[in-house]
């Protein structure tokens, strides 16, 4: 069996000495939702966090990491990030900005070091799952470790 290549996100965690586990799951290109990922990976949805890419009117591109079953509160993200207004980046732009495809967007290892905002709901979880940077792989780690690795700010940005 061929050994899988480590993703940039996993290498960043390795370099920082941060403990994590990789959880693989079956990808369904017709359903890339966090709910589907949770079901396929056998994890509670509260544990699975999705990474969304947005753009602020003052500070540019940023990443929001929120619980999979929740929605991003754009006004709250704008306030947390020092912007007046924040809007989602168009799906066509995500790969050129981050290097990641939909369903495989990680807050770690993007093309540029974008600011990362982690929703405060993460504090209620001992372990959260984020994309490893490819479809079909989740990284399981402690929220504090994601904050350290991504230099993330915690804010109430999901509803």
Describe the 3D structure.
With 159 residues, this protein is of the alpha/beta class. It has a single domain, classed as YbaK/aminoacyl-tRNA synthetase-associated domain (YbaK protein). It has helices at residues 8-15, 34-41, 74-81, 91-98, 143-150, and strands spanning 21-24, 49-56, 60-67, 86-88, 116-119, 128-131, 137-141, 153-155. The strands form 2 sheets. It has a 5-stranded mixed beta sheet.
Tell me how many strands there are. 8
Amino-to-carboxy terminus distance:
43 Å
Class, according to the CATH hierarchy?
Alpha Beta
CATH fold node name? YbaK protein
Shape: globular
For the record, the count of structural domains works out to 1
Helix content: 25-40%
| CATH architecture annotation | Alpha-Beta Complex
Order of helices and strands: HEHEEHEHEEEHE
Largest sheet: 5 strands, mixed
Strand content: 15-25%
Please identify the structural class as seen in this structure: alpha/beta
Radius of gyration using CA atoms only = 15 Å
Runs in which pLDDT lies below 50 for 5 or more consecutive residues are none
List the strand order in the largest sheet.
4-2-3-5-8
The CATH superfamily is known as YbaK/aminoacyl-tRNA synthetase-associated domain
Multimeric state of these chains? single chain
Mean pLDDT: 95
